[in-house]
Amino acid sequence: QVQLVESGGGLVQAGDSLRLSCAVSGRTFSDYDIGWFRQAPGKEREFVAEVRWSSTTSYADSMKGRSTISRDNTKNTVHLQMNTLKPEDTGIYYCYADPSGHGSAVGGRSWGQGTQVTVSS
User: Fold this and answer.
1) Buried b / exposed e across 78-108, counting CB within 10 Å, b at 16+?
2) Running DSSP on this structure, what letter comes out for residue 29?
């Protein structure tokens, strides 16, 4: 089982930036696609961004142009840089890992415990 630990959340003002990190351990990092979901109070969890094993990236429409996801295969870490934050970006941000199918990793999706992001207006 792969383990994921998020960090970097906090309380910021609208227009500020934050960089979230997801440290991955327990399995071969490069065998996984890694991404982020978020969940606002009273709402369903929604996709934010993903970086695949090949470093191909994808973003939710709400995050395009304001965020960058990247992976550091030497440190087994994924970063999500978020700029020009808005109050609607508030929520708990969860990191996940999916076996990419291009390595030996198998099984379902693994989740981290989440990190709180609060953007005040």
Assistant:
1) bbbbbeebeeebbbbbbbbbbbbeeeebeee
2) G
Is the pLDDT at 7 greater than 90? The verdict is: yes
Q: How close are the terminal C-alpha atoms of the chain, in Å? A: 39
CB within 8 A of 74, min separation 6: which ones?
none
Q: What is the DSSP letter of 73?
A: T
Return the closest-CA partner of residue 63 out of 38, 99, 28: 38
Is residue 56 over pLDDT 90?
A: yes
Provide the pLDDT for residue 102: 84
Q: Which long-range contacts (CB under 8 A, 24 or more apart) does 99-106 make?
A: 99/31, 99/32, 99/33, 100/31, 100/32, 100/33, 100/52, 100/53, 102/31, 102/53, 102/54, 103/28, 103/30, 103/31, 103/32, 103/53, 104/28, 104/31, 105/2, 105/27, 105/28, 105/31, 105/32
